[in-house]
Amino acid sequence: MTQVQFNGTAVAITTPFLNYEVDYATFERHIQFLIDNDIQAIFVNGTTGEGSTLTEEEKLKLVEIAIRTANKRVPIIVGTGTNNTQATIDHSLKVKALGADGIMLITPYYNKTNQRGLIQHFTTIADKVQLPVVLYNVPSRTNMMIEPETVEILAQHPYIYALKDATGDLDYTRAVKSRVPEAFKLYCGNDDIIIPFYAAGGDGVISVIANAIPKEFQQIYTTFKTEQSLAEQQFNAINPLLNALSVDINPMPIKALVTQIGFANGELRLPLVPLLDEEQQHIQSVYQQFKSQVI
Length: 295
Prior knowledge:
Structural class: alpha/beta
Strand order of the largest sheet: 1-4-5-6-7-8-9-10
CATH architecture: Alpha-Beta Barrel
Helix content: 40-55%
Strand content: 5-15%
């Protein structure tokens, strides 16, 4: 099975804007910060990166910058999935030509399909593109579930090697884990349940909060491998910040936080809007309190 080798904390990176144009210089600085602080992989142009509002030209330039800046130090995986199979293939081949290490494919949305359609959609893309594929199961956004039996079938494909599980359902996680080969990777898509997800056999997390605290979130994974109780304490120290970031829909809260630390400019693209001032101030206060602690 073809894989992108990483365990632990990857980041679903935000996309900074300045006067509503992509701020490529800040994006590059953010990538360097993440790599300097132990991030294990970077996912570009996903939900948190506001990929659905980016032009193809913008997406490709972000990928090019990410690949060049990372310089093979960490994998760069690109969110290329759409509800149009051929369009996904076409775009995925372009990021492959740029040197991306893998692609992440969301389930089709709006023109949702059935499980047979999912299998054909994902396998057709994987066959044509021939890059490592992370499946992305986030039914709260797509109203489409990749059933455990479907993951079991897809996991047999030589290029489909991982699942980002954003269901928030640990019974689902365990059901998938029991059906897939040992080499198949399971990554958590919900920052607030990483401890039980790791306990269920998960291999890491594709994180939102790691945009701001990559080192601390990776440390939880590392500690969990040897001392679960200490990992729980480390998570509990971060939990108030996670709660603060739940004030509104992702990526609006994390954009406020990365603005505070210098990797965004407070802007989002419609239909997303900035948080209210009092919400931003609360996140800033909780973050400052967290940073003042010794974990």
